[in-house]
Structure formats: structure tokens, C-alpha cells
Design a protein that fits this description.
Blueprint lengths: L1 H18 L2 H5 L11 E4 L19 E4 L10 E7 L25 E5 H4 L8 E6 L2 E11 L19 E4 L1 H6 L8 E8 L3
Parallel strand pairs: 3-7, 4-6
Antiparallel strand pairs: 1-2, 3-8, 4-7, 5-6, 5-8
Length: 191
């Protein structure tokens, strides 16, 4: 009886330990938990600063995320400003179509978890800020795992809750681009 009781206690301790592990927690996005899955060592380089990007610093550690918070009909996020034009701060061509996009196009990149291995490519999302709503097409991933290299403009990995939007999206929402960030909500669009 004592051995069975001890096994039961050990099993409970093991379950508690595993459930609070960052690695396991990062794999449970359905529970609303999304923690850093690792850290990327910073490496500075030629960071194009056209939209005040978060350029990497040598030796700094940057969190990496393989998940994002759950998507709802009103998902809280941070809107950031990004140019998808060649030679600007967006880095290489968009992942969905291997193309660059004009700053006049209503396009966005989503954090890695929301990008969902290209599952949202070409889909439209609805973005709401300050009572205004617009639709934009997903064309790229705001990489939450990789960064601090030429492909990512020597920028840090994105946070896990980013909608990285073109100037056209900011303008359509009536937002001041000089702020660089804006609290928003978004949802999968069906326009």
C-alpha cells in the first residue's frame, strides 16, 4: 500500500513538473500558454533602419517563440510597421509568394505561430484599431524563431503576438506611423 501511495505521489510530482516546463508549455498553444522556447544569441550587422526596426546587438539574448496566443474573433496583438519593398527593412521577398510588395498594398506578416507553416498565406485578416477596421492579405511570416542575420535584416526575432503591417494598413487605420507600434485586435477575415 505504501509503495502504491509513493508511486501516486511521484506521478503527481512528475505531472506538475512537466506541466510547468517551458518546453512543454510552448507546445500547448491551445491552452493559451505560449512561452519562449529558447534564446537566440544576438549578432549585429547591416540593419536597414527605414521603419525603426529592432536591430540585433552583439551578445544580447533574444527570446524565440514557436507558438502564438490562440486566435479568437478578437485576438489581441501588437501592430508593427514594415515595408515589404525590395531594399527596405522587410528583408527578403515575402515567404508566401516569393515577391516584394508595394508600401501601397494592404499586406501583413504574422508571428510564427499565427503564420502556421504558411497555412494563412493569401488569406485576409481583419485588423481593428481605435474603432476602425480594415482587411489585409497575409503574405509573409514575422519570424519569431530566427533573426540576427542578413535574411532577417539583422533584426531580432518577432514577439509571438505581432501583426507586421505595410504603411498602407497603418494609413487605412488612420494610425501615426511614427509610433511604430499599436495595440490592435485581429481575426481571420471572411470579406
Amino acid at each position: 500500500m505504501a509503495a502504491a501511495s509513493a508511486l501516486g505521489v511521484m506521478a503527481i510530482v512528475l505531472l506538475v513538473a512537466l506541466s510547468s516546463s517551458p518546453v512543454v508549455a510552448s507546445l500547448r498553444p491551445g491552452l493559451g500558454v505560449c512561452r519562449a522556447s529558447g534564446y537566440l544569441p544576438g549578432l549585429s550587422g547591416n540593419c536597414v533602419k527605414s521603419n525603426d526596426p529592432d536591430c540585433c546587438e552583439d551578445g544580447k539574448r533574444y527570446p524565440q517563440y514557436r507558438c502564438s496566443p490562440p486566435v479568437t474573433s478578437s485576438t489581441p496583438a501588437t501592430l508593427t510597421l514594415n515595408s515589404f519593398e525590395k531594399g527596405k527593412d522587410g528583408g527578403g521577398p515575402s515567404e508566401c509568394d516569393n515577391s516584394y510588395h508595394s508600401d501601397e498594398e494592404m499586406v501583413v506578416a504574422l508571428s510564427t505561430g499565427w503564420f502556421s507553416n504558411m497555412a494563412r498565406c493569401g488569406h485576409r485578416i481583419k485588423i481593428t484599431a481605435n474603432g476602425n477596421s480594415v482587411y489585409a492579405k497575409v503574405v509573409d511570416e514575422c519570424d519569431s524563431v530566427h533573426g540576427c542575420d542578413d535574411e532577417h535584416n539583422f533584426e531580432a526575432p518577432c514577439a509571438n503576438n505581432i501583426v507586421d503591417a505595410s504603411p498602407a494598413v497603418w494609413n487605412a487605420l488612420g494610425l501615426d506611423q511614427s509610433t511604430g507600434e499599436q495595440d490592435i485586435t485581429w481575426s481571420d477575415g471572411d470579406e
